[in-house]
Amino acid sequence: MPRPQRKRTIYQIPECRTFTADKAAGEVHVTLDELEAIRLMDQEGLDQSGCAERLHVSRTTAQNIIRSAHAKIADALVNGRTIRIGGGNVDFSDDREFGCCRWDVESVSRIGGLTEQMEGKQMIIAVTYENGTGDIFQHFGKTKYFKMYDVENHQVASSRIISTNGQGHSALAGILSVLHADVLICGGIGGGAQMALSEAGIKLYGGCAGSADQAVSDFIAGKLQYQEDVRCDHLGEHHGGCEHELGSCGHGCHNEQ
After folding, report:
1. Is the pLDDT of residue 235 over 50?
2. 3-state per-residue secondary structure call for 20-75
3. 3-state class of 10 per DSSP?
4. Which of 17, 53, 142, 223 is 20 to 30 A away from residue 204, measured at CA?
5. Which DSSP symbol is given to 188?
6. Which long-range contacts (CB under 8 A, 24 or more apart) does 17-23 make?
7. DSSP 99-148
């Protein structure tokens, strides 16, 4: 059985993801990690060792990535093919020292199509996260963090906390799409955000409260209690003062027992 491919860390979301030849004779597909390797080596001038360190892969893997990228681009330029950028087995860094990913609505909406790399091997669950308490944050549109859980063979294989970098409401659905999320567990959430999640193919389990870790465990076990028609129409307003733990919030939040 082949060893699972290690995810490559990237630091930039491309502003453009399609370059079309005048008379396109087919197309080539450049993955996000291949584009990142080109940026690091050809634009920033890093050697293979420095590129490998940034991508969090071995030098051999970095060499293979950049070789593949150069071959694809050469094919496109010589043979007049359209270049499409997207996909790849990647993680996104928020390390501002190296130029963090731009989580703006426009660039996130342009990237698209990353879930094609899932290949049915795992599920990724996102939870709006109250960093410090470990609880589910109760206002989707104002969440500062998502906790992402990689689920394999009906158990959590790994997890990580991702900053939303100050983005809110409609931009958050785009972020979750870029992060390959299949499922979102949250508290209150507005109708517009629900529609954006639906369009991104992300299954919503709203109206949840309590521990994020426990909610994910309950989801995997098939016993997560959630509210199918949860609504939060108080745009721009935090849920302070709501008795979430009693299930009595007038915003449609549902207590998780």
Report:
1. no
2. CCCCCCCEEEECHHHHHHHHHHHHCCCCHHHHHHHHCCCHHHHHHHHHHHHHHHHH
3. strand
4. 17
5. B
6. 17/84, 17/85, 17/86, 17/110, 17/111, 17/112, 18/82, 18/83, 18/84, 18/85, 19/76, 19/82, 19/83, 20/82, 21/76, 21/80, 21/81, 21/82, 22/80, 23/80
7. ------HHHHHHH--GGGG-TTS-EEEEEEEETTTTEEPSBGGG-SEEEE
